[in-house]
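Box 3.1 A note on notation
Throughout this textbook, protein chains are presented in two layers. The first layer is the amino acid sequence; the second is a token string describing backbone geometry. Keep the layers aligned when reading.
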Amino acid sequence: MRAFSIKKDIKLIASNIVWICVAAYFVFHIFTGARGAVSWAKLTHEVTKLEAELKELQEENSFLENKISLLRDNNLDLDLLQEQAMSILGYANATDIVVLLPRE
């Protein structure tokens, strides 16, 4: 009768080991899988970084749109036009102070 009990114990232990392995497999993939917690944290960080970059680009776009609107025929800013022409042609007035900045 003791042999039957040992076989039953071995089956019970083996069954528990299998269930523990199955549970460990799913827990492992919950954290490290393609849609797991680690990937979620990385994506959240990337979204935050991209949103900051988008905000910077929107501000730059707004600045450039404003500058363009000042060069339109119906709203021409002569000072800005002169500044752009001198910048493109590489000219400077004799009374101007020229500061050369390194290109980015």
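Residues 37-69 form the longest helix (33 residues). The two ends are 86 Å apart (CA to CA).
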